[in-house]
Give the backbone structure.
Amino acid sequence: SGASAVCDPLSSRSSNLSGWNLSLEKKYLRYFGVIADLGAQYGAESQRNFLFGIRGGASIGRIHPFAEALFGAVQSHEGGLADTSFAEALGVGIEFRLMRLLGWRSQADEIKTGAPEFERRNLRVSTGVAVRF
């Protein structure tokens, strides 16, 4: 038809979404671990993330900066319609160790979903308690 579709990731429907994020990591080497990252965001539209990948970082005293690469699926719901698509995310973060088993983590990820002709990029910023086992 010649019409182009414009996707504005900063539109009012997809910005300012509140939600939760759960990340589980199993260290296999001193500096690298395998992670499962699950989360959901809610607002005028909602989105669920099912991501898996690797995280690398090093501890410097009580500070632990890290970077991660994740792959998986994102399921979005808008106006009664559901869409599931492949997703990839690259992110960075930092964790401050408060006590032996407790820390505070802040991270930012860019999540890319969709096909190359209709690609959507979202920024996910999260902060919260990190529990170590």
In short: The chain has no helices and seven strands. Strands lie at 18-27, 32-42, 46-57, 63-78, 81-97, 102-115, 118-131. The two ends are 56 Å apart (CA to CA). The first strand starts at residue 18 and ends at 27.
